[in-house]
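Final report, section 2: Outcomes. Of the targets proposed, 3-phytase is the one most frequently requested by collaborating groups, and we therefore present its record in full.
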Amino acid sequence: MTPMRKSALTLAAAFAVFSPIQGFAEDVLAPRIVIETETVPHAGDAADDPAVWVHPDDPAQSLVLGTDKKGGVIAFDLAGKRIQEVSPDLRPNNIDVIYGFPMHGGAVDLAVAGTRAEGKQGVAIWRIDAANRRLAEIAPGPAFTVFGGTEPYGTCVYRSPKDQAFYIFVNNKKGKVEQYRLDSPSEGAVRATLVRAFGVGSQTEGCVADDDLGAFYLSEESVGIWKFSAEPDGGTEGVLIAKVGEHGLTADVEGLTIYRGARDAGYLIASSQGSGDFKVFERAGANRFVATIDLGLADVDGLDVVAVPTSARFSRGLFVCQGGKTTGANQNFKYVAWDEIAGDRLLIDASRSVRGR
Ligand code: CA
Ligand code: CA
Ligand code: CA
Ligand code: CA
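The predicted structure is given below as tokens.
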């Protein structure tokens, strides 16, 4: 690089940092981490992905479900205390929550996760009992297999605004995606029916679906974030709405989640593992870039956010993530108050229940 070229770049960079139009420095939100959970049981890179489950009657009794990909699912309370470890031999990777699933015999809340243990590869489903805040597998091991009995990687759930049907998306390290419709043919049973298969060119994992706008977002780890229709008849063509290299988005692109406000308001939030931070995009329209959330973590991974109140400390929304290489101690999950992330820059909108429409 010639000196002249270098100084031109430096000037451009300086302009970018100080320009309110270009954004950058002032678009970095740096809230504090309020709670770090107790650690997961296994050492090394074991914690992966969280899901917040909001208690139907007493939001302060809500749970954070975290995966230990070398073990099982760990349920933490809102103080970060481990209160249950379930299915310690399934090796779940990504976890998500379904509210009000029409189980034969009555509506139930479910947790679902892709599992990767030898001989137990598939999707496991747990019933969440609100009375005692405990998870129980609806059937031993994975409830159903995917990709012809091979290993899933990322998973997420979707409830269609068209017909209220429930779906699970799974993807694998080849970038393939399968979508399954869930129903309950008999008491206590969940049946999964493959309704669509599509994919992208390389390894995927993080995904999330928008239950209002009918969109399915998928992280292609070294490429960016794709948006597809979440409907089973939505075809196989996606749009790359965020590219690695833009706005500091740095491979691997990992977990995705949605902050759900009224109508189409809210955000799509992505883990940018290579830069150790999170990228916030508008949920509506063409998913314009909004801001970066920097918690000072290394190696960020799965994340989840709920806009609704939970405990007093998280009365205006809860953001949960896995991140941070740990030496000596095992990994854990971090809780951040959404209003401390948002400040006066992002929307704070708890108008939408996690249950129902
Ligand atoms: Ca991950
Ligand atoms: Ca991890
Ligand atoms: Ca999750
Ligand atoms: Ca990954």
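The longest strand covers residues 92-103.
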